[in-house]
Amino acid sequence: MESLEPLDQPPNWGRDELTNFLELAQRNAYASFVTLRAPFAKLLAIDAFYRRLIDNLNNPESWFAALFLLRAHSCFLAAARTALSGQLPETYLLLRGCLENALYGFYLARRPELREVWLRRHDDAASMRTVKIEFQIGTIITSVDASDAQAARVAKELYDRTIDYGAHPNERALTQVLGMDRGTDHVRFEVRYLTRGDELAFGVNLKTTAQVGVCVLDLFRLVYRERFDILGLTDQLANLKRDL
Q1: CB neighbours (10 Å) of residue 129?
Q2: Using CA atoms, how far apart are residues 30 and 230, in angstroms rounded to an integer?
Q3: What residue segments make up the domains of the chain, in order of their start?
Q4: Which one of 12, 143, 154, 200 is most buried, by most CB atoms within 10 A?
């Protein structure tokens, strides 16, 4: 990817609430880049892995699954952006999408007869019901388990975590960004849109982003085993898993 020169801010940038928020989020990402070198390096290595796999995935037998690999990578990049900016619940939403793209890609590689079923989702009400039945996450994870029990276990654990911490409006999604100021005559609640990099929840979020990124790659390894082996990616993936 070609390096881009930094742009000057356009006139009036940061003078309204929306662009001011965008600027604060970007500054958080800059701070993460400077102060959280090890977690950032891990995300950088994971992204490089995606790009090497994608660049060398010419004429794959399971070509349809490759489309989901691209979508999963795009979700990973979006999650990395929000994670580094401190948008914690929002990151878990994106990480769920990242995992679901990988799970669907795996499943459609194993069940190619379902491609047309998936593509016809919006044909009519019956088609919609069929897709909802055929593509239940529990069913897909069971299919993964038949190929690699460890990969299935990790995928389910991470998927459940994304649901708990932001992909659904559950208790932990709220409490991780909830603050309270109790005075003598008042109690004031605060929901943080941006979390500081020195908070525990920020670190958990960043690590989960890396874990999901690697888990997704592990799921696609099950689809493209031979390509992984030829490119030496199987051993590289094992290295990426360290400390996660």
Answers
A1: 11
A2: 37
A3: 37-241
A4: 154
Amino acid residing at 77? L
8 A C-beta contact, residue 190 and residue 178: yes
What's the pLDDT tens digit per position in 134-182? Answer: 999 999 999 999 999 999 999 999 999 999 999 999 999 999 999 888 8
pLDDT tens for 176-235 read 999 888 877 888 889 999 999 889 999 999 999 999 999 999 999 999 999 999 999 999
Phi/psi of residue 186, each to 5°? -160, 160
Angle between helices 88-110 and 149-162 (to 10 degrees): 150
The span from the CA of 170 to the CA of 79, in Å, is: 19
Q: How many CB atoms are located within 10 Å of the residue 22 CB?
A: 14
Place of tokens 């990988």: 102
Cα distances from 210 to residues 14, 122, 162, in angstroms, run: 31, 34, 13
Sign of CA dihedral 106, 112, 116, 117: negative
- Rounded CA-CA distance 150/110 in Å is 18
Whole-model pTM? Answer: 0.95
- Residue 71, token pair as written in the block: 């979508």
